[in-house]
Amino acid sequence: MFSSDFKVYNKYSNAVYEILTNYTDKIEKFSIDECFMDMTGCLLNYTSLDEAAREISERIYRELGFTVNIGMSSNKLLAKMASDFEKPNKIHTLYKHEIGTKMWNLPVNELFMVGKKSVEKLRAMRINTIGDLANTDRDKLVKHFGKFGSQMHNYANGIDDSEVIHLRQKPKGVGNETTFSKDISDYNKLCEYLHGLAEQTMYRLRKENMSATVVAVKIKTNKFQLFTKQRKLQVATDNTKEVYEIAKELLKEVLEKHSLRLIGIRVDGLIDNDAVQISFFDSENRDKQKKLDNTIDKLKDKFGYDTIGKAREIKKNEL
User: Fold this and answer.
1) Where in the chain is the domain with CATH 3.30.1490.100?
2) Where are the domain boundaries for CATH 1.10.150.20 in the chain?
3) Of 74-83, 154-163, 176-185, where does mean pLDDT reach its minimum?
């Protein structure tokens, strides 16, 4: 028997949350050891959601010393169900086309939100699996369970329209980082990754209607040495190009002859844009860049975050 220590639980719960904020701003704390993450528009630096999930899992183990289960799907219900599959240290998917093979054969008591009393009633109706429940007439369930019968029927069929409910608090800083599958030492190649990280970081910052007064670059070598270099700005900015150029300079200062396994960018010292004072001498250039950033942001919002990045890759591959 081990005594519980809520302070320790809370400490590590908050530490996991801080790691997750490097990947998305839309995080809902479901319990002390569970979170929902909306990763929509946050995969510019990853080939797939699975790659991002593996990086998150590895980071939590490396930095905090324990394993996590991760469930991936198109809605909260199915992601939650997937996360409860085989443990420990697993990553599971449960998409719509997988419901029949991965979920319907499970006992009905394993369906999210179905309690002991409801299970007893369902079994009395010869409904023993989630599949049985999914294929039961909805009206019959409503007759016995009221509105909850309709909700159970939806859940058994993988239907859940609820959104990730995240607290809209002004961030103290915004950042993003990525871990490479193999060592990279080429400065130009690293700058390509840095550009993507800067784009995503500044896109998130502009969504908060804030500007930054500090830019920082973080690297981890293939020998797991961690280095950080930062620069305080004379004038706050939400300008992607400006932050990227500064980040490139910082990377060059800290890179030396290292081969890297991780690179990250972060902006801090955040202030509301309403309070930003623009220098008279560079206001014209900043206005032009701001219009460009805003145009790109609108395109990302309308057509998906990855649109601009993919277009850039197509152009590069055609050269």
Assistant:
1) 174-318
2) 104-156
3) 176-185
CATH of domain 104-156: 1.10.150.20
The pTM score is 0.62
| CATH superfamily label, 6-93 | Reverse transcriptase/Diguanylate cyclase domain (3.30.70.270)
Q: What is the pLDDT of residues 92-144, one digit of tens each?
A: 999 999 999 999 999 999 999 999 999 999 999 999 999 999 999 999 999 99
Residues 6+ apart with CB under 8 A from 218: 177, 226, 227, 228, 262, 263, 264, 265, 266
Task: Report the pLDDT value the prediction gives residue 224, as an integer from 0 to 100.
Answer: 82
Residue 194 pLDDT greater than 60, yes or no? yes
The answer to whether 158 and 78 have CB atoms below 8 angstroms apart is: yes
**pLDDT tens per residue, range 135-178:** 999 999 999 999 999 999 999 999 999 999 886 667 788 888 88
* Beta-strand relationship, 70-72 and 91-93: parallel
**Annotated catalytic, 192?**
no
On whether the 174-318 domain is CATH 3.30.1490.100, my answer is yes
- CA 273, 277, 283: angle at the middle one, nearest 5? 100
Give the residue range(s) of CATH 3.30.70.270 domains in the chain.
Answer: 6-93
Q: Which three-class secondary structure state does DSSP give residue 269?
A: coil
Catalytic-labelled residue, pool 28, 34, 98, 249:
34
What is the spatial distance between Cα 244 and Cα 63, in angstroms, rounded to a whole number? 27
Q: Residue 112 and residue 30: Cα distance in Å, rounded?
A: 13
